[in-house]
Every structure is written in structure tokens, then in C-alpha cells.
Amino acid sequence: MDTQALLHRELQGSVEFFLNYSNLDPQSPGFGLTLDATKDARIASIAATGFALSAWVIAAERGFVPRQRALEITRGTLHTLLHRVSHHRGFFAHFLHMNDAQRWGKCEYSTIDTALCLNGVITAAAYFQDEAIRQMAAELLGRVDWRFIIFEKAGTTLFRMAYNPDRDGDYVDDQPGFISQWDMAAEQKMMYLQAAEQIEPSLARRLYHGFRRDKGSFDGHDVIVNPGGNLFAYQFSEAWLDTAKYLDPDGIDWFENTRQAALANRSFCIQQSRSFRTYHANSWGLSAGDSPTGYEVAGSAPSLHPPYHTGTVSIYSAISCLPFIPAETLAMIEHLHQKHPQTWGQYGFFDSYNLAVDPPWYSQSLYGIDKGCSMIMVENYLSGLIWNTYTNSPTIQNALNILNFTKRA
User: Fold this and answer.
1) By the 8 A CB rule, do 38 and 16 touch?
2) What is the distance between the alpha carbons of residues 117 and 260, in angstroms, rounded to a whole number?
3) Closest residue by Cα to residue 36 from 89, 97, 88, 86
4) Confidence band, pLDDT 50/70/90 cuts, at residue 5
5) Diameter of the chain measured on Cα atoms
6) Which pLDDT belongs to residue 174?
7) Of the candidates 270, 250, 257, which has an alpha carbon nearest to the alpha carbon of residue 225?
């Protein structure tokens, strides 16, 4: 396959993943929910469901499924989200039982996973222009009690990360309740956009200015960093928001920031190539995902502490750099397809691989949020569909105005 054919096959395979790993049983209370990972067919991810909602937009636009079918799946998914999925003050449980939409164990009610789901809701409502979808989307967005997770710390206004009411629940150290805070630059920027319409404008602006803008540099690449240098944290908000067209109220260019982070990640891998056989100019991408020892969160310099990595290359996170550094990303895609056919399967590329272990390890797993991010970024590179749909939606346009983002000339 030539490069363009390969990208289209990757895109179609990604949509096929969501078709085959989402609950599309019309009689099921969990209709529309998407699997967290192929390793366990019982567990759905609320964030992966948000990526699935964006998949139905791509599927309808490209004719992968009939538009009416995509519309029906979207309506059914929003009905599930509104009436069946476990939530606390509008914040969804991170993981759910695939079949009945109820909270999995004692997992947390997660702000970022809720926001990822709602990004899909916003995209679907803007694309399909269907009255039932618009009404359900408005209810879902309006139901989130953002004030519940806002607090003041040393004169700074911040979001909490999560909430868990159970003493022995996930991420609970001692007392149940709120978990950590979003006080750094990371993947949560979508949350400020979603909250802007629901809270006072002055509060929305204080929140947006509340997280730190820590700066770092590696190999000449200057970046506003996330603490671990994890590539996905530069990509999740930017998968939907077209940062190439806007500057933030302080003039920060988040598109360029992601581009520099991607180049730094690649440079870091090249410099570490003598120690880790997986890394070289056409094999890079340190992020979160599958690894030989299970789910791993890896990163590169620049970061706030020495980056953790083990030789595992996150394929999806490299593919997700396609709109930002196309030449370098296309070279890696071609290299993997030609030299490492073990990285390719029915749904396109698998999650990751590692040649620094013996024997060499190739993931045979897929994660909904990973496949979803690379899927959206491939579509954005080819057509800008998700960027245009989400960014131009009334919800996001209003939020950008409230937060004083400016459109590039």
C-alpha cells in the first residue's frame, strides 16, 4: 500500500474497531458503551465511548456505515449516557460494566474521562444536527456540576481530578472524597472549555489561568511541559480543538507546543537509541499504553522529573502526531508497516511494541482511547473533519469567547 492508502486503511480499521468493540445490542442497558481494552471484554471506558461518538461522525462522513445507522447509534449512546450510566453530579464513573452501564467496582468518578466523553457528545451534536441528539447533548452538558470540583488553593482556582465516595475505592489513600487536582499543563484543557458555559465567566477565566505553565527544553525544542513528558497529554484536548486557528488569552500557541513536544519526544528516543533497540528516527513515541509488563505510563524529556521509559514505543501516540509533524510521522508509519508487520492487524496498528526485551515484544492489544486518538488525528490530517466540527460548534465557540481566545489572522 502507498502512504495514502495506508492511512485510509488505518482510519477504516479504527472505525471497525469501534463497531466491533462497542455494545451495539439494542436490548442492552449498556448500548453504545465502548470497551476499555481488548484484554477484558467486561469493562467499558466512559472516555473510549467519547472517542466512539467521534468515530460515528467519521463513519457517516466517509460512508463506512450508512448515515442513518450512525445517527441511530449516536442517539442510542446518548440515551444510555443520560439515563443509565453511573454518575455523580454529572461526572461519570471511569469504568463501567459493558452490559449494564453501572460503575465498575469502586472506581473513581473522573473529571477528565467525563470530559473526553463529552467531547464526543459535542462533536456528535454539531455534526448530525439532529434535534433529539441536540437535546440530549444539552442535558448531558448542563448536568455536570463543575462548581462541585472547583476549589481555591493558595490564591489559585483549580479543578479537582476526581471524586470517590468509598473509603477503599480507587485512588483513595485515607479518607474518601476528592482526589488530587489539575494544577499542571496536561490533557485537561478541554475541561475549561466545557465548564465555561456552565459557570460565571470570571470564574471560568480564573480556572483557565490556574494551572501552571512549566517550561522545559530538550534538543532545542521549547515546550510547556506536563510533569512526566507523556505524549498523550499533548494530544487529547488537541484531537478535538483546532489549536492551529487560535491563540489562548496569553498568546500561547498550543498547536506549536504540541509540535515541539512531538519533536522533542522523537529526539529523546534517537538519543536513547544505543540503550533501547526499539528507538530510532523512524521508531519513537513515549506515552501511556500497553507494554510487556502491562499498562505503562512513559514519557520523554522535557519533563519535570527524570522521564520513565522502558523501550516500549507507543504506536498510537506517534500516529497522533501526524497533523503536527507529518513527514516524521509518515516515515514511521511506513517503516512499521514494511519492517514490522507484527505491529499491524485487522484494525490497523496495534498499540505498541518493544525490541529492547528478549524476545522482542509486539502488543496484540488495543485500547479504546488510544485507537480513538490516532483515528481522530488521522482524520484531522486528511480532512480536518473533527477539528472543524467540534471547534465550530456553538458550545466551543462560546467557550473560546468567554475565555478570550483569539482567532489567528
Assistant:
1) no
2) 27
3) 97
4) very high
5) 57
6) 81
7) 257
Query: Do residues 88 and 20 make contact, with C-beta atoms less than 8 angstroms apart?
Result: no
Nearest to 85 by CA among 73, 70, 97, 67: 97
pLDDT of residue 99: 97
pLDDT of residue 32: 98
Of 123, 107, 87, give the one whose Cα is nearest residue 36.
Answer: 107
Residue 152 confidence (pLDDT): 98
**What is the count of structural domains for the chain?**
1
CA 300/CA 313 separation, integer angstroms: 11
**Domain of 145: which CATH number?**
1.50.10.140
Query: Domain limits at 259?
Result: 3-407
What are 140-172's pLDDT values in tens digits? Answer: 999 999 999 999 999 999 999 999 999 999 999
* Start-to-end CA span in the chain (Å): 39
CA angle 190, 213, 221 (to 5 degrees): 100
Report, as an integer, the average pLDDT of 70-87. 98
> What CA–CA distances, in Å, run from 113 to 48, 93, 369, 404?
8, 8, 10, 25
**Measuring CA to CA, how many Å separate 283 from each of 229, 314, 330?**
17, 9, 11
Cβ-in-10-Å burial (0-12, 13-18, 19+) of 88 comes to middle
Q: What is the mean pLDDT of residues 71-86?
A: 98
Asked whether the predicted pLDDT for residue 173 surpasses 90, the reply is no
Write the pLDDT tens digit of every residue in 246-283: 999 999 999 999 999 999 999 999 999 999 999 999 99
Retrieve residue 91's grid coordinates: 461526572
Q: Could you tell me which of 189, 327, 321, 310 has the C-alpha nearest to residue 260?
A: 321
- The values of phi and psi at residue 331, to 5°, are -60, -40
